[in-house]
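Collaborator request, handled under Task 6.
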Amino acid sequence: MESRKLMYAHDTVLTVQHTSLHTISCTLTQDFSTMANYFQCWKLRPNPQKTMVTTFHLNNKMANTKLDMQFCSESVSHEANPKYFGATLDWSLTFRQHLKNTRDKVRSRVTLIRKLAGTSWGSSPQTL
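Structure tokens returned to the collaborator:
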């Protein structure tokens, strides 16, 4: 089994779909090893601290399952809600966390605009 590779600019995503987490882990380990060899061959330095792994599924029993992965001899962090192209993803792909983040961002900006609209600072209409 081989993972699908998705690339945009300098970001790379490896995706694997399977019912067994063990199979997913083995596939990703093999692909991480291939990537590490590629980087070493071309004298590139990857940043394993920026590398993360997450799982998406509909099985509630597996909601807190974490994959133990290694990349370039360093442990890969498990991120429950990774950001991809500005969207915060969650394990069941409901986008609940993304909507909460967007709501909070909009609230803070609306509050700032309300405060600015209620002030009398600035130039008078005659100056403009």
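The cover message to the collaborator said: "The chain has one domain: 4-117. Helices lie at 21-41, 96-117. Please let us know whether this matches your experimental observations."
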